Amino acid sequence: MRKLIVFNHVTLDGYFVDANGQFRWGYDGNDDPEYQAFVAENASGDGALVFGRKTYELMASYWPTAVADQHSPAVAAGMNNMSKVVFSKTLNEATWKNTRLVKTGLIAEIRKMKSDSGPGMAILGSGSIVAQLARENLIDEYQMMLDPVVLGRGRTMFEALPEPLKLKLIRSRTFKNGKVYLCYTP
Amino acid sequence: MRKLIVFNHVTLDGYFVDANGQFRWGYDGNDDPEYQAFVAENASGDGALVFGRKTYELMASYWPTAVADQHSPAVAAGMNNMSKVVFSKTLNEATWKNTRLVKTGLIAEIRKMKSDSGPGMAILGSGSIVAQLARENLIDEYQMMLDPVVLGRGRTMFEALPEPLKLKLIRSRTFKNGKVYLCYTP
Predict the structure, then answer these.
(1) CA angle, A38 as apex, B142 and A125 as ends, to 5°?
(2) CA distance A163 to chain B (A)
(3) Position A39 confidence tier, pLDDT thresholds 50, 70, 90
(4) Is A173 domain-assigned?
(5) What pLDDT does residue B47 have?
(6) CA B159 → CA A13, A93, B108, distances in Å?
């Protein structure tokens, strides 16, 4: 049974992306060495990544570029080499290295992937995917990096969840840059 | 110069009240003794309370009752005796003990109150008040109790803030019941 986690930056008003689908504020505070070490460690796993279309397109347009390679070579190499799945009804192909496109049957496909053996899986961004999987209780861990900023508008990962989801805090860590890492299980 | 703080429970999707204006989930975990002691200490100040109409009506309909007195006598006595201000264009009177009604001029009145000498002031609930005062940079401290629950819908304290508000984390504390207390300054 493979574990499925979500990792997202979240603002103090609960948004993982702003009204334009961006999350630039998440990069503030990257000059904190302790935080940097945590991020590098966190990104170094050998797991697979799971995306919805919007997050996939954002990431696929950045990580394979020379800019990404210059700015964060280790993370870029990791992102490009990791096994990736994008769920989208509208995409016709997924050209980012090591990416598999799944056009229908999100829930069934995730159940199947979870029942396989293999490394853990992580969803980044992808609010619509998170909300659908949370409803079906298919997410094993919610990891959030709570950033010290309020946006006023944006999107949550949990839009229109049909009933409240009570979680259990299993780990937390506060960084000097004011970010708070929080890890919850259902 | 009096300090003005905000204290609110907030869900993991950023809401201080649910879609019906309620915050019942905030009472979960009240059986954690360390958390109980923190709440009692936090509520024991001699400051003044500031409300918008909705939160005022919710609190004024509960704290003066016999149920509140039986269930939480110390907090009820504190809430009833504290000096309170409610801002509302539509209320005609404020009958809860020690409450002053201010019908217009929120920003000017808060500026005046802050410039007086006296104990600190705290806003509870009152999202529309928080959003208006945050814009004018009149809030000195944002205290949040982050509850381990996701609602899917609700209201944030910061609706339609015209631009992002960057904050500084100055204190945090994690409780065994999974709540995380966070304190930020602008």
Answers:
(1) 70
(2) 7
(3) confident
(4) yes
(5) 86
(6) 9, 38, 21
Say which of B14, B151, B163 has its CB closest to residue A13.
B14
Which chain A residues have a beta carbon less than 8 Å from that of B160?
152-153
Measured between CA atoms, the residue of chain B closest to residue A173 is B174
How many whole angstroms from its chain centre is CA B140?
13
A99-102 sheet: strands from edge to edge: A99-102, A83-87, A48-52, A121-124, A4-10, A141-146, A180-185, A168-174
Q: Are B6 and B122 in contact (CB under 8 A)?
A: yes
Q: How far apart are CA B65 and CA B70, in angstroms?
A: 9
Provide the residue range defining the domain that includes A63: 4-179
Which of B149, B158, B165 has its CB closest to that of A164?
Answer: B149
Residues A160, B166: C-beta atoms closer than 8 Å: no
pLDDT tens, position by position, B42-81:
776 678 999 999 999 999 999 999 999 998 888 889 899 9
A27 touches chain B (CB under 8 A): no
Task: Report in angstroms the alpha-carbon separations of A152 from A84, A93, A144, B112.
Answer: 32, 35, 19, 26
Is residue A125, in this structure, part of any structural domain at all?
Answer: yes
**Cβ A158–B13 below 8 Å, yes or no?**
yes
Q: Is residue A27 part of a domain?
A: yes
Best of B18, B150, B174 to disrupt the A interface by mutation (most A CBs within 10 Å)? B150
Any idea what DSSP says for residue B58? H
- As for how many domains chain A has, the answer is 1
B164 to chain A: closest CA residue: A151
pLDDT given at position B106: 96
- Give the CATH number for residue A148: 3.40.430.10
Q: Is A185 part of any domain?
A: no
CA B168 to chain centre: 19
